[in-house]
Write a sequence for this structure.
């Protein structure tokens, strides 16, 4: 819109408006560079949590008031009636009413291959034996390749889960690896992701959405045999967050400058 000579603003306000416009343009470019693609609705995080011996940690993917799951490991070593024995177990335990594990046909948490579909077609529940992932060692009669539970040892695998955000169901995945150094195991949580759109399915290990109606059914009893590196689009970096806050601050300061009275 062209200004007439009579509507010309005082020089100070005119300079402030010009500065605000420049800041807004720069902020717009910065926000575009820092934001995720419009179709990236899965929040993904890396993790370095490790459980050694007997230990329990909360698993709270959306930072809710109450952690929907607990990840636990137990270790026993000592003498029994049959002699010296040791045993390790790990559990993925639903901790709220709406939280559930994706289960295999045996009622234990399913070990998923990368890209397995996690959605409304899956079988979800609290899981037998408190959501047992594995039982390994002389106490349980298990070996690295043959043990109780579906989760593999010494390989990366995925778990599927369902939990509630504001009363609506959301689907997600957790990436884990169990290291074995006899007699103990170390259960490592490597990362996780969840779909921010209620009821929307997600691929195990992926940071993009999936149309469940067109996705092929994948075997939920087999685990991946590969170590999977985190996807680059799985990271929402602290640098990006700070840049976004900085540009918003520039906009706020520009807005206040325009609104301030001229003396």
């Amino acid at each position: 819109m062209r200004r007439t000579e009579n509507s010309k603003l005082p020089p100070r306000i005119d300079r402030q408006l010009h500065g605000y416009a420049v800041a807004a343009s720069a902020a717009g470019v910065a926000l575009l560079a820092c934001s995720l693609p419009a179709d990236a609705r899965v929040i993904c995080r890396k993790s370095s949590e490790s459980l050694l011996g007997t230990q329990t940690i909360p698993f709270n993917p959306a930072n809710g008031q109450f952690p929907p799951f607990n990840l636990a490991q137990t270790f026993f070593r000592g003498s029994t009636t049959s002699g010296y024995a040791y045993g390790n177990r790990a559990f993925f335990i639903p901790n709220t009413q709406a939280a559930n594990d994706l289960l295999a046909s045996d009622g234990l948490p399913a070990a998923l291959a990368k890209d397995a579909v996690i959605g409304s077609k899956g079988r979800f529940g609290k899981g037998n034996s408190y959501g047992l992932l594995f039982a390994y060692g002389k106490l349980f009669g298990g070996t690295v390749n043959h043990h109780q539970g579906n989760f593999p040892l010494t390989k990366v695998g995925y778990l599927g889960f369902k939990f509630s955000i504001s009363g609506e169901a959301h689907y997600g995945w957790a990436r884990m690896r169990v290291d074995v150094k006899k007699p103990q195991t170390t259960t490592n949580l490597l990362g996780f992701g969840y779909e921010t759109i209620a009821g929307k399915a997600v691929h195990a290990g992926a940071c993009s959405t999936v149309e469940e109606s067109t996705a092929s059914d994948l075997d939920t009893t087999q685990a991946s045999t590969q170590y999977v590196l985190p996807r680059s689009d799985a990271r929402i970096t602290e640098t990006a967050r700070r840049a976004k806050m900085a540009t918003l601050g520039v906009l706020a300061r520009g807005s206040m400058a325009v609104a301030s009275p001229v003396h």
Summary: Residues 11-34 form the longest helix (24 residues).
